[in-house]
Amino acid sequence: MKRLFFLTLFLTIIMIGCKENPVQEYGSTLSNSLKQSKDVAVISEISNIKKAVQSFSEERGRLPQNIEEVERFIGRPIDKEQISYNPETGEVTRK
């Protein structure tokens, strides 16, 4: 009985002493990986939109008037919550 008590006490002290929670670490790692993949996707999208703005400008001799005009040019929607477009400079940036 004493052995069981001391074993339980020992394991409890070890568990409390552990600063890292493996489940929490795993969740954090997954969360960080997801955030990084989303960041890479937005950076890639910005690069693609910059190329589209350049192509638009070369074809039409002017910059697109707004981001909707860029959308029509590339034929697909742009995530306006993540990406902004300055029609005066043609600059495409992340919000």
Secondary-structure map:
Blueprint (H helix, E strand, L loop, with lengths): L1 H16 L4 H39 L6 H8 L8 E4 L4 E4 L1
Q: Distance between the terminal alpha carbons, to the nearest Å?
A: 63 Å
The main sheet orders its strands as 1-2
Count of individual beta strands: 2
| Radius of gyration from the alpha-carbon trace, in angstroms | 26 Å
Helix content: 55-70%
**How would you describe the oligomerization state of the chains in this entry?**
single chain
Provide the structure class.
Answer: mainly alpha
What is the number of helical segments per DSSP (H or I, 4+ residues)? 3
Largest sheet geometry: 2 strands, antiparallel
Q: Which descriptor suits the 3D outline?
A: rod-shaped
Uncertain regions: pLDDT < 50 for 5+ in a row?
none
Q: Provide the residue-averaged pLDDT.
A: 85
Element order: H for helix, E for strand: HHHEE
Keywords summarizing the entry:
single chain, 95 residues, mainly alpha, two-stranded antiparallel sheet, 3 helices, rod-shaped
